[in-house]
Automatic annotation (TrEMBL):
Domain of life: Bacteria
Annotated signal peptide: none
SUPFAM superfamilies, sorted: NAD(P)-binding Rossmann-fold domains
Domain XdhC- CoxI: 23-74
Name recorded for this polypeptide: Xanthine dehydrogenase
Matches recorded under InterPro entries: MoCofactor_Util/Proc, NAD(P)-bd_dom_sf, XdhC_CoxI, XdhC_Rossmann_dom
One Pfam family, short name: XdhC_C
Amino acid sequence: MEVAHGVSMQSSQQQIVSNVQGWLQSQKPVWLCTILKTWGSSPRPIGAMMACTLDGELVGSISGGCIEEDFLQQLVDGSLKSQYDEEAKPFIVKYGVTAEEQARLKLPCGGQLHVLLEYIEANNSNREVFSRLLDGLENHTKVSRVVNLESGEISVSDNSSDSSVSIDEQIMTHSLSPMYRLLLLGAGDVAKFVAEMALALEYDVTLCDPRPDYLDNWNVAGVEKVSRLPDDVVRERFSNPYCGIVALAHDPRVDDMALMEALKTDAFYIGAMGSVRTSAARRERLPELGLSETEIARLHAPIGFQINSKTPAEIAIAIMAEITSVRNKTQA
């Protein structure tokens, strides 16, 4: 039995691509803004996007508020379209170049953003591009949006770059990442706090526990609950580099069954809760399940950063901090 709560989640990039694709399908042209460079303190990272229709429908963020307001004002007064009409190709706007502008836009001291603005017409070519981008993200594969800065033509590449945005001569490559997933094993208090924090960090979260008495009494809005055997769930849905697997059941029948399969996958993070002694005993058991020393070495156990945590909430903080660290190193 599976019980789903809420709707399927999307990463911020996926939400923007999905909205742009929908607007183009509805014959609405779109302004798309992409951060190319930052200096000093920046409210949003390189590669962050914002999209907007001519009617002012907006999704995404490049500053957290003030630049968006400035952008919408230029959209209303027509100055954006005037800048585009001068050369009829993407153009770069530099925000925060002067101290006065930093103050007006409420940017942090020294903060500066270079933003690429594209006017995307609702034609068949652009609709096909954003449909392909959305398909790739929904299938948990990394795809790139390739923009010819001279012509404005957009295409799709399956090759991913080490950086979010790269520019080679007049070609910009913007690497897009799919939604990251977390599989939590064991319906307990720690899993509740981990799930809530993971949702806030834009993970798609699934809770698996084959023990009905545990699962029926565990609920976090937005988390899918699954009562199937954990090794089957890992094999079918959590075997790619955008997945993390977190064993929290404190029951070898649940945890070890999942780890037996998880440690053979490409999941970016695999961890198991337990003391030093419990973790040592687990490492002694795992070879009996057919796992090699190299595979077992991938296991984070005891799980999380060691912060002398005692309560379920503190343990969850330690776990999500370690997962975040590992994920960021993987992305680097």
